[in-house]
Amino acid sequence: MDAPVLAVDGPGGSGKGTVCRAVTEAMGWHLLDSGAIYRALAVAAGRRGLDVSDTAALVDLAHGLDVVFEPQPDGTIRVLVDGDDVSVQLRSEQTGDLASRVAAVPAARDALLARQRAFRKPPGLVADGRDMGTVVFPDATLKIFLTASAEERALRRHNQLKEQGVDVSLADLLDEIAVRDERDRNRAVAPLVPAADAEELDTTGLSVDAVVERVLKLLQKQL
Ligand code: C5P
């Protein structure tokens, strides 16, 4: 039998990243940060000056994407693209925006499918993304769809960036979140929608610990 998968989908800022890392640690499982793969593709495209509307070139690049995730002793993950450390650039708003445009190209998504599925290994996988439960792991053991109000998501992102020493206005972040949500929800392929069999969890006003506890309880019931 395939290793169990917890699929966690939802918009940016819904708390997915934090919750997925905590659940991964509690379970001793592997973690797939699928957004980081789209971000890595965006960085690789930018480095080559590639026009993302050039689908054939983008798909070629996706197939041959040279990305390495290196877990560090402090719990962070160093990301190398073409052998260069792009960890900081990967998290920028600009990269996030380009990633969401790259991710709207169906053939580029297809080209990254096998790479994502290869993360499924014993004892289990926590998969963080937008289409984990709908497209990448339709047979996931448990599917969670995390949401939070746009205001709360903008605030969380603001605090996160501030911790990293990045100063952006809250209003700008709220605008960017709205634009990216719209694009992710309305794209033709793998739009951001909950799987029919997903548990929806609104994290507005909930602490990380409370969400993690709830997810772990639901997961234990399925194992
Ligand atoms: O989650 P993160 O902000 O790192 O993702 C960057 C972008 O990659 C998202 O805005 C989304 O457009 C895209 N993405 C996706 N499918 C995934 C993960 C991310 O389309 N499974």
TrEMBL record:
What residue stretches are annotated with the Cytidylate kinase domain? 7-220
Q: Which domain of life is it from?
A: Bacteria
Which processes are annotated in GO (biological process)?
A: nucleobase-containing small molecule interconversion; pyrimidine nucleotide metabolic process
User: Where does it primarily localize?
Assistant: cytoplasm
Q: Which gene does this sequence derive from?
A: cmk
Q: What is its EC number?
A: 2.7.4.25
**Keyword Nucleotide-binding among UniProt keywords:** yes
Q: What family does the database annotate?
A: Belongs to the cytidylate kinase family. Type 1 subfamily.
Catalysed reactions, semicolon-separated: CMP + ATP = CDP + ADP; dCMP + ATP = dCDP + ADP
- GO MF annotations in UniProt: ATP binding; CMP kinase activity; dCMP kinase activity
Where is ATP bound in this sequence? 10-18
Q: Which NCBIfam families match?
A: cmk
Where does this polypeptide localize?
Answer: Cytoplasm
Q: Which GO terms describe its cellular component?
A: cytosol
Q: Which UniProt keywords apply?
A: ATP-binding, Cytoplasm, Kinase, Nucleotide-binding, Transferase
Q: What stretch or stretches form a coiled coil here?
A: none
UniProt xrefs under InterPro entries: Cytidylate_kin, Cytidylate_kinase_dom, P-loop_NTPase
What name is this protein filed under? Cytidylate kinase
